[in-house]
Amino acid sequence: MLYLFAISHFCEKARWALDRVGIEYRGQYLAPVLHRRFANKLGLSTSSVPILEAGETVVQGSSAIMDWAEKQRAPEAPSLLPENDALNSAEAVERRLDGALGVHVRRYYYSEALVEYPQTVKPVFVANLSGGQKLFLELAWGLIRKLMIARMDLGSLQGIQSRELIEQELNWLDDLLGDGRRFLVGERFSRVDITAASLLAPLIKPENHPTYQLIEPPPNVSMDCANWIKRPCLQWASRLYREFRQELS
Fold first, then answer.
1. For the chain, percent of residues with pLDDT exceeding 70
2. Which residues pair with 29 in a beta bridge?
3. Do 155 and 111 touch, CB atoms closer than 8 A?
4. Does the structure show a pLDDT above 80 at 45?
5. pLDDT at residue 249 above 90?
6. What phi-psi label fits residue 30: left (phi over 0), alpha (psi between -120 and 50 degrees) or beta?
7. Superfamily of domain 2-72
8. What is the mean pLDDT of residues 168-172?
9. pLDDT(128) > 90
């Protein structure tokens, strides 16, 4: 069982990894706030998703789920790892992607969408929820929104700061890809590419993403994305979705 938010790009990273190695799972979509109850029931001290429950095993976090998936994959399934000589570089790139791009794409998007245009966010949170959770989200949406704004440190200034950091990370990715390489690290598609494409997905809204067609970006985000889509790194991420994101659970 994979517990996740439909809108989360970190959840997409875990989902894509499981699909890539052919591990069957069932997705349990959660409503914000209620997700804490599920995490507590699984004995976790923090509530962040994605969370994977496999028998007695509980794995939290997209990178940890990738680690688990690599160990569990069948011998004939593709590896999530690049070649051995590229492993150290891959780990450093993935950490930077998670800690900078992943965090700030989320804060940048929510700082406009959740603060100023919450009606654009709600539909994707509601998507695929069970009846009880859907009712809870509908009734408690005002409180949920306030809690998310406070806990994620959202606001107009924060959005501007995160946008500047996104620009820096897009420049970095464009530089990496500037030598014409097909993949970020090594000579084969790996977890680093899954990470980058998943975390960039909110900016490109790929057609074969499980839920992003439900998103209506707010005006400034929409304008920025229209300009950014011409960047080499976003064109590259769009290609990865077309070529490698075929099996969706």
1. 99
2. 4
3. yes
4. yes
5. no
6. beta
7. Glutaredoxin (3.40.30.10)
8. 98
9. no
Architecture of domain 84-244: Up-down Bundle (1.20)
One-letter amino acid of 56: E
Asked if 2-72 and 84-244 have one fold, the answer is no
Q: Is 75 helix (H, G, I), strand (E, B) or coil?
A: coil
Whether 28 shows a pLDDT value over 70: the answer reads: yes
Q: Establish whether the linkage from the previous residue to 50 is cis, with ω within 30° of 0.
A: yes
Q: What would the DSSP string read from start to end of 93-110?
A: HHHHIIIIIIHHHHHHHH
Both tokens assigned to 130: 């069970």
Helical ranges in the chain per DSSP H: 9-21, 35-41, 62-72, 87-96, 103-116, 122-126, 131-151, 156-177, 191-204, 219-228, 232-244
Q: What pLDDT does residue 247 have?
A: 55
Examine the pLDDT at 246 and tell me if it is beyond 80.
no
In degrees, rounded to 5, the angle at the alpha carbon of residue 162 between the alpha carbons of residues 16 and 44 is 50
Domain locations along the chain: 2-72, 84-244
